[in-house]
Each structure stands twice: as structure tokens, then as C-alpha cells.
Design brief:
20% strand; 10 helices; six-stranded mixed beta sheet; 36% helix
């Protein structure tokens, strides 16, 4: 991350990960700076897991915060002085703050971002949920569901044997949890919430079924959009949230932490993300 020239350093932030070209973070954060009247800079850098320590060590005092995407969310925990309780519980951070005294802290805004995305739709509590997928986003989803006072969760994964970490996390969160694989989907239904953490298109074979298992479906995919699950949910009248809702809410929390300004301009950030996605659509 190149240093600034001259006696006055422009405050900088950035998003790191690999791949990174698809990230909507620059559009959202730059829109936030403009709305807040901040002359800050926000860039994107391709950084692999093995490169993160060296990258962070080389940063200057002009850098205030980093947004972290895959594959950096776990390794970042080893490069900071303090870790917030949510990031420690999940074992993943998507935000790093760099203080003037040289200290660093790691945070997870995915979990509260998901809670806030539900809250924006008036959903602040539920009893049961089904979660599709077994990766890092599923782990964040479990913590968010606990924040919504959900008590029972069914995890639907490709390989039940590989779901042990999620089982342990669910137990630590106090969630009663069942685990099933996708061959059992026809037996799964009757929830308050359905959250698909699968990448776009991966839920297609079961879209019609999961569109109707709960009155609210949160599909964390956002591009290409709509997914087959989203189309099916719309057809049957299920309330639908998508990955852009999560993305913008976790980003507003990052902006507030990095700038010290609150509230972050949610509407401006969402509009910038939608505009960026629109620019990527084929003509």
C-alpha cells in the first residue's frame, strides 16, 4: 500500500483479499466518505494469505483500517493485539483497525451486519432457522441467529462429517442443532427463517423446496441476481433478503469504526453498491 507524499498524510483504508476485483467495498466506502465530507482514500489490494503479515507490517501511519475478505479472515487474528469477542468466537475477522500508537485490533462486522439486515425488515426475533452451507458465512450466521434469540437450527451441508466445527460453535452458542445433507431436503421444513450461505447457483437444485420452508428467506448471494432460490421465493410470496443487504450493513459498521462517525450513510452506500453492480451487468 504505497505511502503518501508530502507533510500531510491522507487517511487511507483498503480492502484486501484474493480474488479482490469483484469487491463492492471501494464503491461503498468511497460513497460514505463523500457523504461524510471526508477527504479519505479507499483502495483494493490483491493479497494472499501468506502475504498478509508482510503487507500489514509495511503499512504507514496514514492507514486507519482494513476490510478483509477471503482467504484472510482467519490469519488476521494472529496479526493483532486484541480481538473482539465475536471475531474470537467465530474464529474470523473481516475488519482490522490500526491505531496511531501502532496497536492493531480485529473485529467481525458480518455477524452484527446480518442482525441489522434482518432488523431493517422488522425481524428482531425468531424461534427456529435452517442454514444452508457449512463454511465461514454459515458460522457467522449461527452467531447472528443467536442474536435474534433463535434456539433451534438445522444445518444442511454437503458432507455431514465435515460439520463438526459448526456443531461445536452451535453448542457454544447454546443452539439446539440438527445436521442433514442435501439428500434429506424433502424432510426439512417448518422454520421461521431460512438462510442460504451457498454461493450463487449452488442452491439451484433445491430452490423450489427451500423457497417455501420459511416465511423469510435470506440468500447471501447477490451477483448474479436473482438466483433461482430468489425467483422461487418471490413466486410463492416469501419475504426475501439478499447478500447486498448483508454487505452494506457490515460495511456501515466498518465505516463507523474506521472513521469514528455514526451513523454511517446507509442509503448512499447501498446506492453506490447497486450502481456498481449495474455497471457490471452485460449490455
Amino acid at each position: 500500500m504505497p505511502g503518501a507524499q508530502g507533510p500531510v498524510l491522507m487517511t487511507r483504508c483498503a480492502v484486501l483479499g484474493s480474488p479482490i476485483a469483484h469487491s463492492l467495498s471501494p464503491a461503498m466506502h468511497r460513497a460514505a466518505y463523500a457523504a461524510l465530507g471526508l477527504d479519505w482514500r479507499y483502495d483494493a489490494y490483491e493479497v494472499e494469505e501468506a502475504e498478509l503479515a508482510g503487507f500489514v507490517a509495511g503499512l504507514g501511519q496514514d492507514v486507519r483500517g482494513l476490510s478483509l475478505t477471503m482467504p484472510l479472515k482467519r490469519v488476521a487474528l494472529d496479526l493483532v493485539d486484541t480481538v473482539d469477542p465475536v471475531a474470537e468466537l467465530i474464529g474470523a475477522a473481516n475488519t482490522m483497525l490500526l491505531e496511531p500508537d501502532g496497536s492493531r485490533s480485529a473485529h467481525n462486522t458480518d455477524v452484527p451486519g446480518l442482525v441489522n439486515a434482518f432488523a431493517e425488515r422488522g425481524i428482531t426475533a425468531a424461534d427456529s432457522a435452517v442454514v444452508l452451507g457449512g463454511g465461514a458465512t454459515a458460522a457467522s450466521t449461527l452467531a447472528a441467529l443467536r442474536g435474534l434469540r433463535v434456539s433451534e437450527v438445522t444445518l444442511v451441508v454437503r458432507d455431514v462429517a465435515k460439520a463438526e466445527r459448526l456443531r461445536d460453535l452451535a453448542a457454544e452458542l447454546g443452539l439446539r442443532t440438527a445436521v442433514a445433507d442435501f439428500s434429506q431436503v424433502e424432510q426439512i421444513g417448518g422454520f421461521d427463517l431460512c438462510v442460504s450461505t451457498l454461493p450463487g447457483g449452488a442452491a439451484d437444485p433445491w430452490a423450489e423446496h427451500f423457497a417455501g420452508v420459511a416465511p423469510v428467506v435470506f440468500d447471501v448471494a447477490y451477483h448474479p441476481w436473482p438466483t433461482r432460490l430468489a425467483i422461487a421465493a418471490h413466486r410463492v410470496g416469501t419475504e426475501l433478503l439478499n447478500g447486498l443487504d448483508l454487505l452494506v450493513h457490515q460495511a456501515t459498521l466498518q465505516v463507523e469504526m474506521m472513521t469514528g462517525r455514526s451513523p454511517a450513510p446507509l442509503a448512499a452506500m447501498r446506492a453506490a453498491a447497486r450502481e456498481e453492480l449495474g455497471d457490471r451487468e452485460p449490455a
